[in-house]
Amino acid sequence: MNPGTPIVEVTDLRVAFGRDRREVLHGVDFTLAKGERLGLIGESGSGKSVTALAVMGLLAETATVTGSIRIDGQEIVNAPDRVVARLRGDIMSMVFQEPMTALDPTMKVGRQVAEVWQLHSPRDRRHEARNHVLDMLERVGLSDPPRIARSFPHQLSGGQRQRVVLAMALINKPDLVICDEPTTALDVTVQARVLRVLDEALDAVGAACLFISHDLAVVSQVCAEIMVMLDGDVVERGTTRQIFTDPRHGYTKGLIATARLDQVEPGERLPVVSDFFTRGQR
Ligand SMILES: Nc1ncnc2c1ncn2[C@@H]1O[C@H](COP(=O)(O)OP(=O)(O)OP(=O)(O)O)[C@@H](O)[C@H]1O
């Protein structure tokens, strides 16, 4: 890791799809410092996932990408696949909404977490995998890690599966974790617990986080800064407190007004309650 270099530096990022090159990101700029947590909010179709996938180098082949994305100082736009794949393994990882997209249903979860660890550890240390896996499963709040490790994904609850995915995302101590709606598929009490675990695990690993959600309450649980997207543009960025108490852009003002924030004390972190906020409104 290069000290002083932002972990992510995005400049004039444009993404278009298909033969007609329909542009869906129109020149996005942002930086994410090491250890920082940035929430990315906006309604459906505003470009949050495309931004995240571009940073991970995981956009569909039909995408045309221009501008610059530097990961720890290294340019990835138009870089060879192997360069981006190495960064993905060594420096960054991603957690998606649906844990089963990341898990192999035919393999015990302990082995799946171990394989991620082994991919990036020296050969002569591979026998240590089991201890690392059990330790990581415990860190993400799973009780009885040996039993969890022996289970197949379908034997676990949705919340347990997403914790296993978090363990996979964090076991190689990445510098950057991108979470795309990681708790949306979970029920509210499980969601709150998984967010707490994520919060603690990010702290323990010291990783930066780009956290995507369309739910302000969820974002404010994890992030001290928020960036707002609208129709493929970033319209505002500020601390969570500033976004809630003094939003600048008309769209953000609407978002906050409709989110019934009059019912809460302004603060950096808000409780996650299901009907606390109404979703995705202008
Ligand atoms: N593979 C693709 N091919 C064509 N268009 C795409 C592709 N992926 C995304 N898009 C388009 O890009 C735009 C932004 O999509 P994106 O998935 O980033 O939105 P989002 O803000 O993450 O929404 P959601 O909250 O629903 O996930 C949308 O118009 C979407 O239809």
TrEMBL record:
Keyword Cell membrane: yes
InterPro entries: AAA+_ATPase, ABC_Ni/Peptide_Import, ABC_transporter-like_ATP-bd, ABC_transporter-like_CS, P-loop_NTPase
Membrane topology of the entry: Peripheral membrane protein
Subcellular location: Cell membrane
Superkingdom of origin organism: Bacteria
GO molecular function: ATP binding
Signal peptide start and end residues: none
Major place of residence: membrane
Pfam families: ABC_tran
Residue stretches making up the ABC transporter domain: 8-256
Lipoprotein keyword on record: no
Record's keyword terms, sorted: ATP-binding, Cell membrane, Membrane, Nucleotide-binding, Transport
Protein family per UniProt: Belongs to the ABC transporter superfamily.
PANTHER family: DIPEPTIDE TRANSPORT ATP-BINDING PROTEIN DPPD, OLIGOPEPTIDE TRANSPORT ATP-BINDING PROTEIN APPD
Record protein name field: ABC transporter ATP-binding protein
Organism: Ammonicoccus fulvus
